[in-house]
Design a protein that fits this description.
about 650 residues, alpha+beta, Serine Threonine Protein Phosphatase 5, Tetratricopeptide repeat, Helix Hairpins, 4 domains, 3-stranded antiparallel sheet, 20 helices, 12 strands
Length: about 650
């Protein structure tokens, strides 16, 4: 109500702490009041007597009002926001930022961090170019950027905390992705490719040594193959020792964080097993071979650590890793329960039927367990359980039940679960890949792969800001199509093709139906025209001569071209054509008068008589002449007193129509 009456939303003259209503609303967590004050023009960057702005009360560890802090930051000027999270380069050694972005990331204040990242991008005029500021992301814990004279180069950057904490929403923000792109292209990719190339070389040496060791004496050095094997193994042994040193160096720097990276564990275990295998070989023990095989497997799996070099390969490796960690353990647990239940009941049934010796694969409980695993993996029976060499009744039933459960139900469930996980993981695979790249970049910056550097990349390659034209297009080119998008595009094309095919068939059906309707309409029109033409054939009309057609009379059809006057006693001339009279066909020139007893002249033509055709002048009397003339169609009448051009049908005898 006060705001509606024009009250100042930023007034603080009457407050002894010089706090505005926005300070109190923020401190008490009244998000609706904060929105209302901001909508009425309240200033979010006003400081109280303690020098604090409202946003500092929102992000306090005691409050942590994430939504309110995000609203306040988005309402402030971008430059002011950046100044809150960094310190000037000429500040003293004990200076630090008013708000620590590192602390917000650790506390996972998602909306606040995203608002800060959005304030690091300033549009330049009306163009599509923007200036992106990176100093807050590269700053140390106190907010000093790498160009500050008191910058702590051993401090973790915000990028490091985002990657370590698996904050995909932060890493996939446009500002962070632009920073990752710049660092990856400038120095991280080259360092990473170098390590990948060295790993491939060492992997080839490992393969050569393993193959030749299986073919020759692993301790001999006399033959050519033994010399090649020895050289390959010694060079590879140096690589293993160097890798182990680097792993311990990472462990020292990252401490407990080191064990959160799955590839660190794989690398460490592979080095340990390979060194142990060489020690066992030197001792002349045969146990070297299984240890060597495990070390070979783990070392080769380390290649997935370099999958981030290629975006698509990295996405596939992430999908594979997710499936192995999420789906297989659950499936194995369920299958283990079914396998134990089956094996116990099956061995008891065999013991009761005295059939433990039928097959070696089911002679004891351990053989039965292993046979059950083989059945699941191979997807089919691995022994003859039915027939002369098979089991008896109940044991055979149990085997059939286990085969159905393992080969049909369990495998179908596994396939469906893997498919569902694959679809779900694909959408997040590229986000996880960005996290991996961020982690690689931070490791390079922390010189954990290369030992101490005098000037780390984080300082030597630092840029406070850069101008980027159309950042959306830049990121689109940087980010190749996701696997799910490729599959979705293919599916959309197939769906569109099927939809268009259905539409085409529907249109063809409609066209065919319309063609049939048009044919029926044309046929009806043709028949109508024919009937109309037939009814009007042979008729001529003029101002003084009209054509009269009488048809359908019993035995008679006459046509009368008639000329008549309307007055009584006037001579009229009828040229009459009558056809179809029963037994008569004559042509009559007729003269008749219009009154009773008056002679009129009728040129009459009658034709179609049965066997007769004649032309006679005829004089007729007592003919009633009508006084009016109308075009009339009449049927079934027995004569009229008016004169119409008449079409008559089925009248008895002959009827004339005259004007």
């Amino acid at each position: 109500m006060l705001l509606a009456r024009g009250a100042n939303p930023s007034c603080r003259e009457q407050d002894e702490m010089q706090r505005t209503p926005l300070h109190y609303a923020t401190e008490n967590g009244y998000v609706d009041v904060v929105k209302q004050l901001l909508s009425k023009g309240a200033q979010p960057d006003v400081r109280d007597n303690d020098g604090k702005m409202p946003v500092q009360y929102a992000v306090s560890p005691k409050t942590e009002y994430d939504d309110i802090a995000a609203l306040l930051l988005l309402s402030m000027d971008n430059k002011t926001v950046r100044g809150v999270f960094t310190v000037p380069n000429d500040s003293p050694i004990d200076s630090k930022a008013e708000i620590s972005l590192h602390d917000l990331i650790r506390r996972n204040m998602k909306q606040t961090v995203l608002s800060v990242l959005s304030c690091m991008m300033d549009p330049l005029g009306d163009s599509s170019s923007v200036r992106v500021h990176y100093h807050a992301l590269d700053a140390d814990e106190e907010g000093r950027d790498p160009k500050h004279k008191h910058f702590n180069k051993d401090s973790r950057s915000c990028l490091h905390l985002m990657s370590k904490g698996q904050h995909t929403d932060f890493v996939y923000h446009d500002v962070v992705r632009l920073l990752l792109k710049r660092k990856w292209v400038e120095y991280a990719r080259s360092c990473f490719l170098f390590n990948a190339a060295m790993f491939v070389i060492f992997e080839m040496l490992l393969c050569v040594g393993a193959v030749l060791a299986s073919m020759t004496d692993p301790t001999g050095h006399t033959e050519a193959l033994e010399v090649i094997r020895a050289v390959a193994e010694y060079v590879f042994l140096l690589a293993v020792v160097w890798t182990l040193v680097l792993e311990f160096n990472q462990m020292k720097k990252h401490r407990l964080e080191y064990f959160k990276d799955k590839f660190n564990l794989v690398g460490l275990l592979s080095c340990v097993f390979l060194l142990l295998a060489f020690l066992l070989r030197a001792a002349g023990l045969s146990q070297q071979w299984p240890v060597y095989s495990v070390g070979f497997l783990l070392w080769t799996l380390r290649i997935f650590n370099f999958a981030a070099v290629f975006r698509t390969m990295g996405a596939y490796s992430q999908v594979l890793w997710r499936i192995m960690l999420r789906d297989f353990p659950q499936f194995i647990c369920v299958f283990a329960i079914i396998l134990i239940a089956f094996s116990g009941s099956f061995v008891l049934a065999l013991r009761g039927e005295d059939s433990l010796g039928v097959h070696k694969e089911t002679s004891n409980i351990f053989e039965i367990l292993f046979t059950g695993i083989r059945i699941l993996i191979e997807g089919q029976p691995v022994l003859d359980y039915y027939g002369p060499d098979g089991y008896r009744g109940f044991s055979c039933f149990l085997m059939v039940a286990f085969l159905g459960m393992s080969c049909v139900v369990m495998l179908s469930i596994l396939i469906a679960q893997l498919s569902d996980t694959y679809q779900n993981v694909q959408s997040d695979a590229h986000r996880q890949l960005e996290l991996n790249r961020a982690w690689i970049i931070t490791r390079v910056e922390l010189h954990s792969l290369y030992g101490k550097r005098r000037i780390p990349h984080r300082i030597s390659k630092y840029e406070a800001s850069e101008v980027i034209s159309n950042p959306k297009e830049v990121l689109k080119k940087w980010d190749s199509p996701q696997l799910s998008e490729i599959n979705r595009h293919v599916k959309d094309i197939k769906d569109m093709h099927e939809m268009h095919s259905l539409n085409l068939r529907h249109v063809n059906k409609r066209v065919k139906h319309l063609e049939e309707q048009n044919s029926e309409i044309l046929e009806l029109l043709t028949n109508s025209n024919v009937r109309r033409h037939t009814s009007n054939s042979g008729t001529q009309t003029s101002p003084t001569l009209q054509s009269v057609s009488a048809s359908g009379t019993e035995g008679t059809e006459e046509s009368y071209p008639v000329s008549a006057s309307r007055t009584e006693g006037t001579e009229e001339s009828y040229s009459v054509s009558a056809s179809g009279t029963e037994g008569t066909g004559e042509n009559y020139p007729v003269s008749a008068s219009g009154t009773e007893g008056t002679g009129e002249s009728y040129p009459v033509s009658a034709s179609g008589t049965e066997g007769t055709e004649a032309s006679d002048p005829v004089s007729a009397s007592h003919i009633e002449v009508t006084e009016e003339s109308y075009p009339v169609s009449a049927s079934g009448t027995e004569g009229t007193e008016e004169s119409y051009p008449v079409s008559e049908s089925r009248t008895e005898g002959t009827e004339e129509s005259a004007l």
